[in-house]
Amino acid sequence: AVSASAAPNLAVPPVTIGFAPRHPTRGDEITISAVIINNGAADAENVLVQFTDVTSGRAVPIGEQQLIERIPTGGNGIAEVTLDSSGLSGERKIRVIVDPNNFISESDETDNKGDQTVSIAAPAAPNLVAQPSNITFAPPSPTEGQPVSVTVTVLNDGGEDAEDVLIQFVDVTDGGMIPVGAKQTIDLIPAGGSATAKVTYQTEGKGGDRKIQVLVDPHTIIAEYNEKDNDATQSLMVAPAAAANLVVEDSNISFSPAFPVQGETVTLHVTVLNSGSADATDVTVQFVDVTNGADVPIGSSQTIDAIAAGASATAEISYDTAGKQGERKIQVVVDRNNLIPETRENDNEGTQILTVISSPAPNLVMQANNIGFNPPQPG
Fold first, then answer.
1. What H or E segment, with its residue span, contains residue 152?
2. Which three-class secondary structure state does DSSP give residue 165?
3. This prediction's pTM
4. Which of 68, 135, 252, 315 could form a disulfide linkage to 47, CB 3.0–4.6 angstroms apart?
């Protein structure tokens, strides 16, 4: 009989960890196998085995945990997984852990893992790589209108040199592909090395978040072992240029007198705001009678010489109310022809209602005592 203290002991000797193929090339599917031994005094059941890549110092799982149903005392079991080596190169440190969650009570818990190294060779072909982190801008935070130097560092992590490498920069902000400068050619990128290409990006009229993409070997002229890593995109925030913003609010349109009688002349008054970051000069202001859908200018366009950023100015004109009783819809439009660059163009007009009171109608009255004769007593 097995005593109550008898327990299994699972171990992973490094020499039992193997790779197929033994000398893989990047992109190969590598089968990793491990022999798990039980040198304890009791059988082990439902044994979990986890394969990990610990090359970077952080354990990255390789596939799912494998299950060995039973490893008898003095016996062994085999577990294996497949590692996709695409994008991997050089020496990789593989660790195999048996019973990673310590579900099985063992006589020794210190020998449950083993490490082995596999060397992955680069294929005998170039591999050109563009990465977002390798796209840089100078200046990094430009203002609209400021030229930007866009630089990309292109890697060749393949096993052969690449010559005459074509580079295309494109602006893909709005979903299209607008070339940025001319195509660039890098004469040589050695195997395992890198090289840079640079263009100038003009930012006039391009404020906001721009998306710049780099295409390496865009016509696929160079034979590579991986054609899926030849483009990358990086964002560039372009600060809008300083500009005015002229605003007409309904509440800033007023009348004097406020309730005129038909026939009175009314002074129409407006306060125009500049909520932008730049001064505005030669600001035109047009008062318009838009009652019943009409568009009748009221007098000539007024001109305000200047409105400083963050400030305001006024304009006024006279309005003849003869024959215009009732509600009149008065509109004020600033910079009607959009001659002044602004951050917004949709707040340049406002509307206010002017109520014109009808003038009293005449009322003719005849009274008997107001009738006279001359002479009063004719003969």
1. strand 148-156
2. strand
3. 0.53
4. 68
